[in-house]
Amino acid sequence: xxxxxxxxxxxxxxxxxxxxxxxxxxxxxxxxxxxxxxxxxxxxxxxxxxxxxxxxxxxxxxxxxxxxxxxxxxxxxxxxxxxxxxxxxxxxxxxxxxxxxxxxxxxxxxxxxxxxxxxxxxxxxxxxxxxxxxxxxxxxxxxxxx
Length: 146
What we know:
Elements: E1 8-13, H1 17-28, E2 34-39, H2 42-49, E3 64-67, H3 76-85, E4 94-98, H4 103-111, E5 116-119, H5 124-141
Parallel strand pairs: 1-2, 1-3, 3-4, 4-5
Helix pairs in contact: 1-5, 2-3
């Protein structure tokens, strides 16, 4: 266990059930004690982050958000823009994790305040290695606000 929290909360915002299951598997096998919370679109993500009444009233403040770009109802760009404009949420690190590697998507994500941009690998071992690297970096290397 890397020094710091006894556990970390990660919010995954992704409408792809397969990617969500792989992320849950990778975090479960990861080097740190992380709890993965999963929502399927941007509307749910903002409700979770704002702890809106209903299923998210008791939601923990995540230590990290893994955000897909292309989702129904409210896409990742819209979520990113709202999170980084909100004084209560803007310090939460947001890693855009998407299948895109288009220059426009990368530039737009950073312009909107993404802390990192990662292209999802189609290779299972590489996907899992990427999740482990994100865990180690965000929870073992950098200093996060509390």
